[in-house]
């Protein structure tokens, strides 16, 4: 009857946290499509650095030359720029170093004096690019390449961590590379290993994997299919 109350009227769906809305893990084919298109957007270099290093987009966008040692292949992101509020040492692959050296050479050739790897175009080198500007380029690629609707810059960290896990990278090394906490149990309190050497090797393997994905005539296989 029309007078019967709707039994679902008082039911409310649980609200999803913002962090739960876009937990997309790109398949290899989708990641390859994205990586191949980075040269076609203005902020492609910062997005490529993020991809190669598994950093967060704000960490890559705010990179300073003083943080980077090109001779020793190191990028030390200070605690005040990290989510965990601890220094994070990235061991740069040759692919990442080539990218950074090319950016430096372009700045020198153009006479750009700036402390930032990615200076904002209108700030005369006094500010880094806005993180949202880089995210806008991700959105542009998502729309033009017909990527998954939940594909964001953070999806790249999901892709990297998933690949590390699938290739049996130790959990402690994964956490080291992504600046995630090593845990809060009693054992973790006594664990002070830095895992720099294995992390360096896995960053290199990841960069080589990305090269393989973007090579012409190579079809990446989705191991989760």
Morphology call = globular
* Beta-strand content: under 5%
Biggest sheet statistics: 3 strands, antiparallel
Number of strands: 3
List key phrases describing it:
globular, about 220 residues, 3 strands, mainly alpha
Walkthrough of the structure:
The chain is mainly α and 225 residues long. The protein has ten helices and three strands, in the order H-H-H-H-E-E-E-H-H-H-H-H-H. The chain has helices spanning 18-21, 28-36, 44-53, 57-61, 94-109, 131-144, 155-166, 171-178, 186-190, 196-214; strands spanning 68-69, 74-77, 88-91. The protein has a three-stranded antiparallel sheet. The longest helix has 19 residues, at 196-214. The radius of gyration is 20 Å and the shape is globular. The model is unreliable at 6-16 (pLDDT under 50).
Task: Write a brief caption for the model.
The protein has 10 helices and 3 strands; from the N terminus they run ααααβββαααααα. With 225 residues, the chain is mainly α.
């Amino acid at each position: 009857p029309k007078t019967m109350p709707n039994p679902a009227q008082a039911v409310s769906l649980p609200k999803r946290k913002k962090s739960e809305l876009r937990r997309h893990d790109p398949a290899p084919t989708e990641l390859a499509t994205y990586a191949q298109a980075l040269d076609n957007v203005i902020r492609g270099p910062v997005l490529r650095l993020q991809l190669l290093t598994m950093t967060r987009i704000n960490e890559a966008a705010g990179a300073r030359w003083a943080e980077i040692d090109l001779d020793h292949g190191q990028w030390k992101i200070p605690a005040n720029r990290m989510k965990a509020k601890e220094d994070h040492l990235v061991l740069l692959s040759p692919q990442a170093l080539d990218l950074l050296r090319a950016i430096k050479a372009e700045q020198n050739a153009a006479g750009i004096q700036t402390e930032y790897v990615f200076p904002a175009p209108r700030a005369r080198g006094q500010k880094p690019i806005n993180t949202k500007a880089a995210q806008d380029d991700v959105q542009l690629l998502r729309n033009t390449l017909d990527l998954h609707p939940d594909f964001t810059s953070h999806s790249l960290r999901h892709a990297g961590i998933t690949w590390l896990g699938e290739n049996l990278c130790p959990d402690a090394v994964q956490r080291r590379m992504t600046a995630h906490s090593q845990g809060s149990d009693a054992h973790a309190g006594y664990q002070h290993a830095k895992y720099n050497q294995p992390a360096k090797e896995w960053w290199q393997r990841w960069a080589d994997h990305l090269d393989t994905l973007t090579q012409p005539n190579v079809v990446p296989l989705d191991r989760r299919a």
